[in-house]
Amino acid sequence: MKIVCLDAATLGENVDLSVFKKFGEFISYQKTKSDEVVPRLKGVNVVITNKVVIDKAVMDATNLKLICISATGMNNVDLEHAKAKNIAVKNVAGYSTASVVQHTFALLFELTNRIKFYDRYVKSGEWVKSEIFTYLGADISEIAGKEFGIIGLGEIGRGVAAAARAFGANVSYYSTSGANKNSEFAQKNLDELLRSSDIISIHSPLNEKTRNLLGANEINLLKDDAIVLNLGRGGIVDEVAMARAIDERNLRFGTDVLESEPMSENSPFLNVKNKENLLITPHVAWGSLEARKRLISLIVKNIEEFIKG
User: What backbone phi and psi angles, to 5 degrees, belong to 27?
Assistant: First the structure.
């Protein structure tokens, strides 16, 4: 069996890909351009891809038997054509739940506790000059007692809901599919959730129902001092409208995802003046070392199951 990983760079360092050598010949490429895909997959049985596109043209020009997606999302593979050609497609799910839940609160804590602001104050030497024991130059706010709204109550959303409740928040949710019925938390329609929530955390996929879910009209419904967190997908939040709201109102926004990744040069967030109210991380919430190790082990399991038939 010959296995090729097309974009190992997306899996980061400190993960051992040599485990795939037990199945046969294994070749790993850090990155793969679109015109390099077919040449690199000639004579290959199994491909491992995170974001590299495996479309009809690639499948027709190669002899793939198994496509392993090193992520949960499968939109980079033409699933219908794979089915028609009897090519198995396996993704991985559930590996990053703890990592994303933790990152959600990492963003939230920075926006509520202003850690960077106070760290800079201390390291600048200003605290040394102080005549009193404390310094409250930026407001700190509590999670306890706040209305905490969750958009998308899947596995990750439920994890965030449980943690928010542990911090004393009143949790409610909006189901983007309309199919999620959870009696543990109050269900609201979108407008009601936006109007009532002090903190909103997004954990839904990007699809026809969620694209631009928080547009200018929806963002206008938010409380002026609300916190919005996007751990779902870029494209769910209107970035132009959100950037404007951060500057014009006291809105705080933390996101790990953008509509264009990597970030585009003309991103409206690069021009935000109220930078203390904006936090952006480069799509890393999923990527704790533990999560990436689980990811590799799940890909190995997928290959083993494929071999067993």
Answer: -125, 135
Q: Report the range of poorest mean pLDDT among 157-171, 176-190, 250-264.
A: 176-190
Please name the residues in contact with 267: beta carbons below 8 A apart, sequence gap of 6 or more: 239, 258, 260
Nearest to 36 by CA among 12, 14, 62: 62
Determine the Cα–Cα distance for residues 7 and 221; give it in Å rounded to an integer: 41
Whether 13 is catalytic: no
In the block, tokens 């990492």 appear at 106
Residue among 261, 290, 304, 305 flagged as catalytic: 261
CB 174 within 8 A of CB 149: yes
Catalytic residue among 233, 252, 292, 294: 233
Amino acid at 50: N
pLDDT > 90? residue 178: no
Query: Is 283 in the active site?
Result: yes
261 is a catalytic site residue: yes
Sign of CA dihedral 229, 234, 235, 241: positive
Catalytic residue among 103, 158, 283, 292: 283
Question: Helix, strand, or coil here: 130?
Answer: coil
